[in-house]
Amino acid sequence: MKFLGRGGMGRVYLCRDTLLDVEVAVKVLPAELCHDEEALQQIAREARAAAKFRSCPGILSLYGIERHGETWYLLMEYAAGGSLHDRLKREGALPEEECRAVGAEVAEALAFAQDQGVLHRDIKPANILLDGKGRAKVADFGIAKVMSEASSRQSLVTVAGTPVYMAPEIILQQTVDGRADLYSLGCMLYELSTGRRPFEGSYPEVAMMKTMPGSRPPDPRAVRPELSEEFGAVVRRLLEPDPGYRYSRARDVVEALGGLPLRATG
């Protein structure tokens, strides 16, 4: 067993399933959550629902939730490449071509989930893992929202998610649909391509900036001029504060990123 890291959703270990002889990631839930019966029941329901996602290569497989004594843990597919969050910390902004590829892979996963009537609600670099070949896999479908709600009920210091990636309609507690996930994808692509988050500050500061009428972050090309105008336009549309001006479906984002002209090299 090898310790991989710790986050708001618990400690993660790399283990080997001796029966199947495969590596799996084991996420040990926080002690406080292990005593929250409502949250555990919700997580179990989400784990059962997530079984339908196993046919999508861009969604990290959740194998189940199990208990050992008073400790509950999730059994998940192991992604050898770590998270986009870790890569950003190591390398800073990524080349535009990689941003396009990651964006299209995440959008494809969101499109698959939207076809099933499921939202993620917490798209951010820490929830995008990379496999051994560098392909993106979206983690924690449904689970992050449940744990965030449980943390709020218990007034825990650490909560899942961050307002930096939240769509304005979530902050305003308005009706939410798949376009909220697309806004979060836009925030993530902005950070991947520029090395900066589109909005910075405390929760109240970010919430105020995002919910002010017409509030938008600086154009990504103003931060990193070498980005193409076409890629910048996709990111700007994803970050429209009014959902009506964003892409309607994740599938549209896949097509938009895939249809961008190739960049000249050399």
Oligomer: single chain
Beta-strand segment tally: 7
Uncertain runs = 153-161
* Rg result: 18 Å
Q: What is the H/E string?
A: EEEHHEEHHEEHHHHHHH
Secondary-structure-based class equals alpha+beta
Main β sheet profile: 5 strands, antiparallel
Determine the CATH topology of the largest domain.
Transferase(Phosphotransferase), domain 1
The chain-level mean pLDDT equals 87
Strand line-up across the major sheet:
1-2-3-5-4
The tally of helices reads 11
Helix content: 40-55%
Specify the CATH homologous superfamily of the largest domain: Transferase(Phosphotransferase) domain 1
**In percent, how much strand structure appears in the residues?**
15-25%
Top keywords for this entry?
266 residues; Transferase(Phosphotransferase), domain 1; 2 domains; two-stranded antiparallel ribbon; 41% helix; globular
